[in-house]
């Protein structure tokens, strides 16, 4: 396809001192300052994960629109279809979210994403005519939903209280139009990859810049409510937060509805905030002007070393950010601003304007350099985001992210109940990654790294490790301390007679 208004794209990288991690980005099929341009947009985070759903379960993603657009198709990335021989159906609906729906609570604030597992329960719903059957159900049709328990504050299974100030999850349904259903179903060849729900015949749905799209995917099957492994569908997704590290995105983009009674993380049915979100493609006609694109390239305590699960008070955490725009003239005097709040999303806003530029010899590009010079004590949580404004006043804003210095209290830390490998972060990495684990009792430990062909790459003798949560770094070097090449590596962590394995990717 021939590019429209083809221009040289000038890339500007921003090198900031603060913290972490994944960022909303647009995968642009074709980029221009002109209007009515077909693009494919998506969220992008660091880690790929699978989201398992059974008949009756629902997953949902919210996406903040970067520019005025008309949404025509939604692509769902299927990792594995059901294998029980039935034709499973994924019903795809699109909602326009507002102040009376997720991600907002009834007082206009965002849900506290720091709440994980059972504490992220948002309640459940039923149809107006059948309060005994929780939504969704195959026969619920287009009836209005009534939300339970926001007044009584107790669930049907364990009398667990849902999060405060709850309200309906859904905004206004915009696709499909009327009572028709848009279905993505099991293909005869069980092919994985992207499968698209096409709304273009209906004219799509219009969204304005900064409005939230909510895509709701309901698993409808002949065995509704079954948890048989043959009925399982795995949707390819992404991890948007790391509870272990205390790193969060605000608002959380992913939700999941557990259909079977008492099947959720807290043994309650209903909606939960998830640390994962499905990998969706939004095929849209951009009718407004796209703002600059902001991309986070690296987060760490130095220009090459990644962040750790414990951030000492007063540490400057570095973020490398790249910004680009298809219209080079608008990037001559782009203004990049770092914003942050302390301990609350309602706190007063601090801003730091860009400072003098500096040249990065490795990337052969210019950066803007800035410093956060305030000292923050242990237990301080920082909420931060970045904006970029070009000469025409087009503004891009990243999603808010947060991290915490130190710990709230060492006395509050739990004792692990078993030897457990929590994985490595970052992954993919370059050149260093940190492998996290916990042990329930003192153990002699070592770490072994293998190549794809099973050849030994590195063995690290850790020694005696006490009860608690720990980590060990691998610097991407072999036993002779030579740097290894890019690729997939396996690692085994041994604790006495116990061992666990993981997989990591080195990208240079």
TrEMBL record:
Which Pfam families is this protein grouped with? FlgD_ig
Task: Give the FlgD/Vpr Ig-like domain ranges.
Answer: 432-494
Which residues are in coiled coils?
none
InterPro entries in UniProt: FlgD/Vpr_Ig-like, Secre_tail
Q: What is this protein called?
A: FlgD/Vpr Ig-like domain-containing protein
| Organism from which the protein derives | marine metagenome
């Amino acid at each position: 396809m021939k590019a429209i208004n083809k221009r040289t794209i000038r890339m500007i990288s921003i090198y900031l001192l603060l913290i972490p991690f994944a960022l909303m980005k647009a995968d642009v099929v074709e980029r221009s300052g002109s209007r009515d341009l077909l693009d494919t947009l998506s969220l992008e985070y660091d880690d790929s994960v699978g989201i398992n759903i059974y008949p009756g379960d629902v997953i949902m993603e919210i996406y903040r629109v970067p520019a005025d657009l008309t949404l025509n198709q939604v692509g769902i990335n299927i990792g594995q279809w059901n294998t029980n021989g039935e034709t499973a159906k994924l019903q795809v609906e699109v909602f326009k979210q507002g102040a009376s729906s997720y991600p907002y609570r009834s007082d206009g604030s965002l849900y506290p994403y720091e709440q994980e597992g059972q504490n992220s329960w948002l309640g459940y719903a039923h149809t107006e005519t059948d309060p005994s059957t929780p939504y969704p159900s195959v026969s619920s049709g287009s009836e209005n939903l009534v939300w339970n328990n926001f007044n009584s504050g107790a669930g049907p299974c364990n009398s667990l209280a849902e999060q405060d100030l709850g309200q309906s999850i859904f905004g206004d349904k915009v696709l499909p139009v009327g009572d028709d259903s848009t279905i993505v179903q099991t293909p005869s060849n069980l092919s994985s990859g992207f499968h698209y729900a096409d709304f273009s015949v209906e004219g799509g749905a219009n969204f304005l810049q900064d409005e939230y799209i909510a895509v709701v995917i309901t698993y409808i099957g002949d065995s509704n409510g079954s948890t048989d492994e043959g009925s399982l569908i795995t949707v390819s997704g992404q991890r948007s937060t790391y509870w272990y590290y205390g790193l969060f995105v605000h608002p959380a983009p992913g939700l999941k509805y557990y259909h079977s009674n008492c099947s959720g993380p807290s043994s309650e049915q209903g909606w939960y905030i998830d640390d994962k979100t499905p990998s969706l493609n939004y095929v849209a006609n951009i009718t407004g002007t796209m703002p600059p694109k902001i991309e986070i390239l690296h987060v760490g305590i130095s220009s090459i070393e990644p962040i750790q699960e414990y951030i000492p008070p007063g540490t400057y955490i570095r973020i490398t950010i790249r910004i680009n725009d298809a219209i080079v003239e608008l990037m001559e005097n782009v203004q990049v601003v770092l914003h942050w709040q302390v301990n609350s999303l309602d706190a007063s806003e601090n801003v730091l304007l860009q400072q003098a530029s500096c040249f990065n010899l490795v990337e052969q590009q210019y950066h803007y350099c800035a410093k956060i010079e305030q000292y923050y004590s242990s237990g301080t949580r920082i909420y931060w985001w970045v904006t970029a404004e070009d000469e025409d006043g087009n503004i891009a804003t990243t999603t808010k992210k947060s991290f915490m210095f130190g710990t709230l209290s060492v006395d509050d830390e739990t004792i692990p109940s078993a030897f457990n490998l929590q994985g490595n972060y970052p992954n993919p990495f370059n050149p260093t990654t940190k492998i996290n684990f916990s042990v329930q009792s003192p153990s002699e430990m070592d770490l072994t790294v293998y190549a794809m062909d099973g050849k030994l790459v590195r063995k690290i003798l850790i020694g005696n490790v006490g009860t608690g949560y720990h980590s060990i770094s691998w610097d991407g070097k072999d036993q002779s301390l030579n740097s290894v090449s890019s690729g997939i590596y396996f690692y085994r962590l041994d604790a006495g007679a116990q061992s666990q394995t993981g997989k990591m990717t080195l990208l240079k």
